[in-house]
Amino acid sequence: xxxxxxxxxxxxxxxxxxxxxxxxxxxxxxxxxxxxxxxxxxxxxxxxxxxxxxxxxxxxxx
Length: 62
Fold this sequence. Notes:
With 62 residues, the chain is mostly beta strands. The chain has strands at 2-8, 14-20, 35-38, 43-47, 53-58. Strands 1-2-3-4-5 form a five-stranded antiparallel beta sheet, with no helix packed on it.
């Protein structure tokens, strides 16, 4: 996945925006979020309407 880092949260997460898939032919049929967050541990998170962060995936390159 290709993304642009747009900032950091007070919790220390990188805030990012989805740009494109590197290998779309290998991608899962999934509605990838436009905006998401990356933790130092490699977790991909989204922010819920209640303001909490929810892990949706794990990456090995963060």
